[in-house]
Design a protein that fits this description.
By secondary structure, this protein is mainly β. The protein contains no helices and 15 strands. Strands 1, 2, 3, 4, 5, 7, 8, 11, 14 and 15 form a ten-stranded parallel β-sheet that branches. Strands 6-10-13 form a three-stranded parallel β-sheet, with no helix packed on it. Strands 9-12 form a two-stranded parallel ribbon.
């Protein structure tokens, strides 16, 4: 925690199944004060049953805040959900100023009772980009 991971490369080696992991146990990668600045390549692998409950918190998603030099790519997500009442809520990233590409999300949900919620990214900022991505599921807000 507290490190941007700038210049580091992370590669997903296998599918990940979060079945049995508490929705309140997950802490997103990157914060509003220290965004993730590395590169994450899912290598076409799938994350399934990921759940994050950020009730009362901002920046809820697999990645909380993605900085300008960061990239997230080549990942599938299935049967995943994020729930939050704060701002910036998205399955892949709550907030993104970097590059997100090649992401497929299916049978998933986002429940954002605050502001700026989305299926892939909650808030796209500072010249960030989303390319070749798709979302299938539900997005709700109170």
């Amino acid at each position: 925690a507290g490190e941007s991971l700038a210049g580091l490369y992370f590669e997903l080696g296998n599918d990940l199944d979060f079945t049995g992991v508490s929705a309140t146990a997950y802490v997103p990668v990157g914060t509003s004060t220290t965004p993730f600045e590395g590169a994450f390549d899912g290598k076409g692998h799938k994350i399934s049953n990921f759940k994050a409950d950020g009730k009362g918190f901002n920046y809820t998603g697999l990645f909380g805040s993605v900085g300008e030099s960061a990239s997230i790519s080549n990942l599938a997500m299935e049967k995943c959900s994020v729930t939050a009442i704060g701002t910036n809520v998205g399955l892949v990233a709550a907030s993104c100023a970097g590059k997100i590409s090649g992401i497929t999300v299916v049978s998933s949900s986002v429940d954002c009772d605050g502001e700026l919620g989305g299926g892939i990214v909650g808030a796209l900022t500072k010249g960030g980009s989303i390319t070749d991505c798709s979302f299938s599921g539900s997005i709700t807000s109170a």
